[in-house]
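Revision sheet: structure tokens.
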Amino acid sequence: MDRTSRSSGSARSDDQTGDAPAAEASGAQEGAPGVSVDLTDAEVEAWAERVRRRRQAWVDGPTEDEKHEWIRREYARRLARLQSEESGSGNGVPTGRDPYEERRFLERRYVREARLAAEGLGVLLATLPFRILAELVRTGQDWEEEALRPARRRWIPFSDDL
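Predicted:
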């Protein structure tokens, strides 16, 4: 949050809008009731002084109270983030803070992949004879179709027909 958008003692104590004369003039042109079209020099000077003080407060930076308040909020934010990371994100993904947690996550992942590979090998070995048999049968059928198909008649030229 920037200093111009919040209401604090040092940044915007006198004027909340910062554009009072412009707002008054535009409101008067639109016919807003109770707003004067004519601004006196005193009103313009008072507005200019409020703007100068607000800008000087911004240049001076935060007050000690504002600094302490920021430190308190930042500490609370960081503490909340650490507590949420310690409790875990809930989806099984390591949070990145504990190096041992990442190792345990990788270990669980590799154990699962090794188990899946072993199960895949078992299924492959159990079904391999049937797959081989199916492939042999298909190859035999292809050969049978090729061998038992009636011969195609072709024209064979004799030497004197050339």
